[in-house]
Design goal:
Length: about 280
Amino acid sequence: MSYSVYDVINTRIMELLTKGTVPWRKGWNVTSSMPRSLNTKKEYRGINVFLLASLQYSQPWFLTFNQIKESGGNVKQGEKGSPVIFWKWIDRTDPEDKNKVPLLRYYNVFNVEQVDGIKYPEPVTATNQFTPIEAADRIISAMPNKPLIQHMGNRACYSPSSDTVTLPPQTSFESPDEYYSTAFHELTHSTMAEHRLNRKASIQVHRFGDEEYSKEELVAEMGASFLCGHAGIVNNTIENSASYIGNWLKALKNDKTLLVHAAAAAQRAADYIINNQPEGKEAEV
């Protein structure tokens, strides 16, 4: 039973990564509340915080299916629950042994945004002072043929199907540097489109650990690093990028060749965004 629980959790984490959600790299905070049970009002702990905070919901409240039914609500059609784990203490088979054994179990919960007919308290929205960085804004404004950029929700992503970059509100980021670094990451992803640099393989859906998928994540983060350098944002964002890239390289067993190719693609993406198109052999590196 324990193995199956670990398998469920690992599968969920891999799903998040495959969708482009990297939970350990988030420089924004949309709400001031950690994920909580609406039934008990208690915060989730351990790996459950990691799993639930990685979702794109702006509300922190979660319920089990039975709790939803008992409260008179209904899960919206097509919505799926997310696993959380807990330890259940059971008696040993030997009746003379009074010590209990911990058993790892899991169950699924739903965010209140996935449910109809449930009342819940609105969390306090966390906002930070946002001071635009002129050089970074110029880079974004001058990008040729740029995608639609919208600010909403609790997730940063690029959607190839709609050619849209979605970012959380600027005031939800911990600092302007974090905002622009995230924006540059997603804009680098957008250069994969056929009408830009046409990284065709990147548009396909790949599993975490797959070379093409992993390469695209490296391209996006290295592209963000290059653009941060152009904008003069070279302290925490570069350090964070190095850590992020290191995580991917470890997952790929430090494939140095992949890093070289990703860096070349990232350079082309950064050049595209700042509208600096080198000619001749330099463009082919």
